[in-house]
Amino acid sequence: MSRICKPVNMLWNLKLGVFIVVSSSVTCLIPLIVFVMSDTSWTHSLPQRLTLDILPYLRTVSRDSPHGCPPTSSDPTAYVITPTYQRLTQEADLLRLCYTLMHAPHVRWIIVEDSDNKTELVYRMLHDCHETDIIHLNVKSLPPGRKPGTNQTLPRHRGVSQRNEGLAWLRKCVLPTSRAGGVYFADDDNTYDVRVFDVVRKTNNISMWRVGFAGGLLVEGPVCLNGKVTGWRTFWAPKRRYPVDMAAFALGLDLLAQFPQANFSHEVKAGHLETEFLSLFNISTLEITTAPDDNCSTVLAWHTKTSIPNIKGEQVLVKKNAADQKMNQTKHR
């Protein structure tokens, strides 16, 4: 809870039975009575910066939670890590994924913004998505640079810092108390069969399935027979050890706990994030769990991308409104 540990000399008597006292002698908010309703409209009266910082904790953290972490469910849970960044379609993409996750039981959605601070747009969208168990994080991506000791320019991998931040949160807040469930890296502009999250929850080592519209193919992923991966349906860089898309696999929490240093690397070649990451876990193809059945017969995710909307008319409309306003001002002089 370090992000909300700030000295403030104020006393707020909030509606809906929420009272928070902040003393100048301490550096943290001290919850005296927290009775949070699903309707959090009362937070509009709080300063925006404080609201963005404390609301996720008021929703999910109990007084007994260690280190500011929310309680961990005893049921196998799908931990879905979603990197996101600012763009025109960000809210629409996140909202669509939110509605998908509403239909999946036992899911905790970990959204990590590519930003120095949590943004109001994402916060407001998550507020409307209150039916889903959400963790809201942020970390800024590393700037493009060169590989240490060489003149080699490192490729810019979008989402690396954010996925690693999500993994760090799992290691801090979940793995110390639970190994029930799995983790999945779900980009915000993909399309998902709701059954994929059930597969994630039940993953022990690594589960894999086919993904649509990936790697230059209609369908990319494992070739399976009788519950074993026997090969790969792939076109791009077919010599990769695991030639699959980010949306094609899940990791079991127990496996993740055995490799505390396993993270995505900023230094791998473009398009090799998945195979380099999966190689860290020393799992052979024979140990991979095939999904959703023994023959990987069903696509469970599609590597879709939202097209950039055409909003050229906005500039024309702004200019027209400005001209009309100027004309009206001239008439009234």
- Tally of individual helices: 8
Class by alpha and beta content: alpha/beta
Low-confidence stretches: 1-67
Instruction: Estimate the mean pLDDT confidence.
Output: 81
By DSSP, the count of extended strands is 15
**End-to-end distance:** 57 Å
Question: What does the radius of gyration come to?
Answer: 23 Å
In order across it, which strands form the biggest sheet?
6-5-4-7-13-9-14
Strand content: 15-25%
How many strands, what sense, and barrel or not for the largest sheet?
Answer: 7 strands, mixed
The coarse overall form would be: globular
Architecture overview:
With about 325 residues, the protein is of the alpha/beta class. About 25% of the residues lie in helices and about 20% in strands. It is built from eight helices and 15 strands. The chain has helices spanning about 50-60, 90-100, 120-130, 160-175, 195-200, 255-260, 275-280, 310-330, and strands spanning about 10-15, 20, 30-35, 75-85, 105-115, 135-140, 180-185, 190, 205-210, 210-215, 215-225, 230-235, 250, 290, 300. Strands 6-5-4-7-13-9-14 form a seven-stranded mixed beta sheet, with helices on both faces. Strand 1 and strand 2 form a beta hairpin. Helix 2 (about 90-100) packs parallel to helix 3. The model is unreliable at about 1-65 (pLDDT under 50).
List the helices and strands and how they pair.
Elements: E1 10-13, E2 19-22, E3 30-33, H1 48-60, E4 77-84, H2 90-101, E5 107-113, H3 120-128, E6 133-138, H4 160-173, E7 181-185, E8 191-192, H5 195-201, E9 206-208, E10 210-214, E11 217-225, E12 228-233, E13 249-252, H6 253-258, H7 273-279, E14 289-290, E15 299-302, H8 312-331
Parallel strand pairs: 4-5, 4-7, 5-6, 9-14, 10-15
Antiparallel strand pairs: 1-2, 2-3, 7-13, 8-15, 9-13, 10-11, 11-12
